[in-house]
Design goal:
Blueprint: E1 2-4, E2 13-16, H1 52-61, E3 65-71, H2 82-95, E4 105-111, H3 134-143, E5 151-154, H4 157-166, E6 173-175, H5 182-191
Parallel strand pairs: 2-3, 2-5, 3-4, 5-6
Antiparallel strand pairs: 1-4
Helix pairs in contact: 1-5
Length: 193
C-alpha cells in the first residue's frame, strides 16, 4: 500500500523507516490486544523523535526525495486497518513540513502482510515485507528514484537488510539508535551528498 505526492524529476531518495526512526513507538503505552508492543494505531500519539524535523528539512533542502517504507504487520494481525495506518501516516506527514508548511514526504509505502497474521490473505510473507527490498524497489520504479544514488535510515537490522537487498550500497544504509540519532544520520548523508 502506498500514497504519494507527484513529482516528475528522477532523483535520489532517502528511504525512511517510520516507527522508532521518525516517530516514537516502542516507548508508548501498548495499544489494546491484539496489538503488540510497538504497534501505533492512534494518530493522536504520533510524536516526532528529536532531530527528525530538522534532519528531514535538511535532506529535502539538499534535493533528496523522502520516502517512508514501513512494515505494518499490525494489519495482518487484526490490530489495525489500512485506514488506521493511513491516519497515522497522515499525522506524520502533517508534522513533517518545511518552514512554509509544505510537506516533506514524497511518498509513504507500507506492508500490511505478516506470516503470523490472522487476517486471511494478509497472513503470509510478502516481498514488500522488510528485510526484503520490495517496497524500495517499487518506490524506485514508481517514483523514478535512482537507487544507486539513494540512502536508507532505519532503526533495525531488517531496515538495513532491505536497503541492501534493494541494491543500495551498504555504507548508505544507516542505523539510528544506540547513541546515533536521526540528526547524526542526516548529517552523514549530507556530508557525502
Amino acid at each position: 500500500m502506498h500514497s504519494q505526492q507527484a513529482r516528475t524529476a528522477s532523483r535520489a531518495a532517502v528511504f525512511l523507516d517510520r516507527d522508532d526512526t521518525l516517530i516514537e513507538c516502542n516507548g508508548l503505552p501498548p495499544a489494546p490486544p491484539p496489538a503488540q508492543p510497538g504497534d501505533l494505531v492512534d494518530p493522536s500519539l504520533v510524536r516526532l523523535l528529536p532531530g527528525v524535523l530538522d534532519g528531514c528539512r535538511s535532506l529535502s533542502g539538499a534535493g533528496f526525495d523522502l520516502v517512508v517504507v514501513s512494515n505494518q504487520g499490525c494489519i495482518a494481525r487484526g490490530a489495525a486497518t489500512c485506514e488506521t495506518v493511513e491516519a497515522v501516516n497522515e499525522r506524520v506527514r502533517a508534522l513533517l513540513v518545511d518552514e512554509f508548511g509544505r510537506g516533506l514526504i514524497r511518498a509513504v509505502y507500507f506492508c500490511p502482510f505478516h506470516p503470523r497474521g490472522r487476517a486471511g490473505w494478509l497472513a503470509q510473507e510478502h516481498d514488500w515485507r522488510k528485510p526484503s527490498g520490495g517496497m524500495l524497489c517499487a518506490a524506485a520504479h514508481e517514483l523514478g528514484v535512482v537507487l544507486t544514488r539513494s540512502w536508507l535510515i532505519g532503526d533495525a537490522a531488517r531496515d538495513i537488510e532491505a536497503g541492501i537487498s534493494a541494491g543500495l550500497r551498504p555504507e548508505r544504509c544507516l542505523r539510528v539508535g544506540g547513541g546515533v540519532d536521526f540528526a547524526a544520520a542526516a548529517a552523514r548523508v549530507l556530508a557525502q551528498a
